[in-house]
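This follows on from our talk about sequence and fold. I would like you to pick a protein and set down its sequence and fold. Go ahead and set the record down below:
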Amino acid sequence: MTVNYPANLLPVFQQFITAEYASLTRAGEPITMPVTPYVGESGTLDISTGLTYPTKAERARRNPHVALLYSDSKGSGLAAAPTVLVQGKAAVRDADLQANTDRYMRDSFRKLPAATAGTPAFILRSMAYYYTRIWIEITPARIMWWAPGQLDTPPQVWEAPADTIYPGSDPAPAGTTPGAWKEGPSEWQSGAQRAVQALGLPVLTVTGADGYPYLMRARSVKLTADGFQLDMPRGMTWAATGPACLTFHYHPEVFTGQENMMFVGTSQQDGTAVSFAVKRRIGDWSAGGDNRLLGLWSFISAGFKLRSRLRAEAARRNQPVPKINLPG
C-alpha cells in the first residue's frame, strides 16, 4: 500500500526535524511529546521510541488513534512552511529489533548529523539502550493544513479514501510494560516559569469526539496561579475544552540538543481564550538545549537507568539485543 496524500505536503513531512506527537492514555487523555518525524517507504509518517522506554508505543498499540502536528519549521530549510495536523492510525513495529535499530541509525544520522558529530564510535556503540528502537508507523486518515500566516482561517482538509487499509500492530510482547523510566517533578510551578520564558509557544492537545487527538500551537501564553492562559488561532475549528496536554519544546536551528516540558490537566475555552489548569508535569527528556556536550552527557548518563531494561525488553520479544551498526 502507498499513502497518497497531497504532494505539496511531502517537503514538510520529509524535512521537519521535530513534530508534536499525541497518543491517548487508557482514559482517553492526550499525552503529547516532541519527536523526530520520518517518512516510511510506503508513505506512512513514522516516529520511533526507545525499546527501553516503550510507553509511547504501548499507548499506540492499545489505541491506534494518534496525531502529529508539524508546527515548527526551525532547521527544516523551508522558508514558508504550512502548519500541518495529521490524524491517523498507528501500527507499532517491534518484531525485528535489529532491522528497527539499523533503520534508526541510518535515518537519524542522516537527518540530525550535528547531534553526534565528533562523538567517538566506541561511545555510540555503547548506547544500545538508546539506539535500540520501536517504530510507530502512522497511516493518515485526515490531514488539515494552514498556509503560512493564515492560522485564523479554516484549514484545507484531506480525507483518506474510504477503502484505505490501516495495518495492525505487531503482537504485544508477553509480560508487563516497564512504565515510565523518569518520574515527573513533584511540583510544576518552577518548570512552568522557565517554559514560558525560554521554550517558546506551547502546543495544546485535546481529544475530539471522534477519538482522535487535536493539536494546535498557541499564539500567546501567560502563567497563572493554577496553570496557563492561552490565546489560540481562530483556525482551530474544534472545541478545546476537557482533558488536555500542554507541550513546550525548544531546539536550536542546527539540532544538537533539545529542551522540553509537558503538563497535563484540563482546558476551558472561551472564544480564542483557553484556560489550562495543571494537574501535574510529566517526566521529560531534555538534552542540553543549545549545549551539545550537555546534551550528549544526558544521553550517556541515562544509560545508568536504562541499561537494566535493555535485555529484559528484548527478551520479552524473544529477541537478542541488537548490534549498533554505525552508518558509513
Notes: Residues 62 and 103 are 24 Å apart (CA to CA). DSSP finds seven helices and 15 strands in the chain.
